[in-house]
Amino acid sequence: MAGVCEAFAGRFGRVEPRRTATAFVSGLLADIEVKTCWQLAERAGHARPDAMQRLLYRAVWDADAVRDDLRDVVVARFGDSDGVLVVDETGDLKKGTHSVGVQRQYTGTAGRIENAQVGVFCGYASRHGHTLIDRRVYLPVSWTDDRDRCQAAGVPDEVVFATKSELAADMITAAVDAGVPVGWAAADEAYGNSSVFRTHLREHRLGYVLAVSRSHLVPLDGGKTRVRADRVAADLPASAWQRRSAGAGSKGPRFYDWAWLDDVCTDADPDDGGHHSLLIRRNTTTGELAFYRCWTPQQATLARLVRVAGIRWTVEESFQAAKGQVGLDQHQVRRWDSWHRFTTLALAALAVLAICAADADDDSTDTGLIKLTVNETRRLINTLVLRPIRDLTHRLRWSDWRRRHQARARQAHYTRRLNLELQP
């Protein structure tokens, strides 16, 4: 943990916020039920939550600069020329209307339209390990068209509406410009269906395996005809399918049937100098199909494309670990800066777990045990490294503080509601 926090320690001009940031990351790794500023402050031994709240709201530090330092640490440990940038989004269910970016919108977290805040994330994956390295909060049009609302939430004046695929493209550009070793990009159909996003990746000469919808129109015969992806799959002979593993899963190799149509989907600039293809995955049990638009600067093999398609799932694993282990979705912040600061520190905590798990896996000795998981890594950190405060006086003082603060908040809410009801 010290190595990750030391990487961005210089971004804090004063020692107090620097120490608070380290305590914040430690708290996110700690075995506590809820990871808001109150709980993190109590865990750190603070008498009040002021320092933790100040770190997110008013302290002087650049969350994007810390993000860059964190990305450098991840690349130093996991960097590989055949690495993959994986982009995806995740939502946090919210109440009210004031949290930055919140509105009723679809989120995969709930599987339906809910009042939610959505973030777009970029993960880095290689044969050495994987974790999240970048983040953007998604602002719907209802926000960007209401500058007063944006100003109240601290959104910079220069921020305008951007689609999720545009946010993803921005993060990929930032990674490439920073010299992140990468050869591929992967994403689900929300991004793969965007021709602009695909063009952006080709401009960076990044090979890609991007999921597309079954209704996606596949350009054939040099773009002269367009056929639905599921229609293309239906016309394939049995000999077109090959059974291959998309990588190891918790229950063993993830075998699927794959069909690969090389040199199709050539609706792009003919001078891009690459190779376009369509990849189709079929579940061996249910027969369910998935479709991928692929492009490579040089000719690639089916095995490499299948590997990249399988790596896309690492971002789902990272989301699960980030929310389940380091409280990525437990922030109680409303403002633009606070969201980026909390999320960046959560990514730092996640990087600690990913790097520790990878370091433990470097030992090639056959112990008869499975690889150390991120979940188990956090348990060991709590057992061997972090020392929770068990002082009875400290716990009772915090109990009194919480109840007193909640009493004041309740009285303020009652007074406000009574004043509203008395208004003519």
From TrEMBL:
Q: What is the superkingdom listed in this entry's lineage?
A: Bacteria
* Transposase IS701-like DDE domain location: 8-218
Q: Cite the InterPro entries for this sequence.
A: IS701-like, IS701-like_DDE_dom, RNaseH-like_sf
Q: Name one Pfam family in it.
A: DDE_5
Stored NCBIfam families = transpos_IS701
The name of this protein is: DDE transposase
- Species annotation: Micromonospora craterilacus
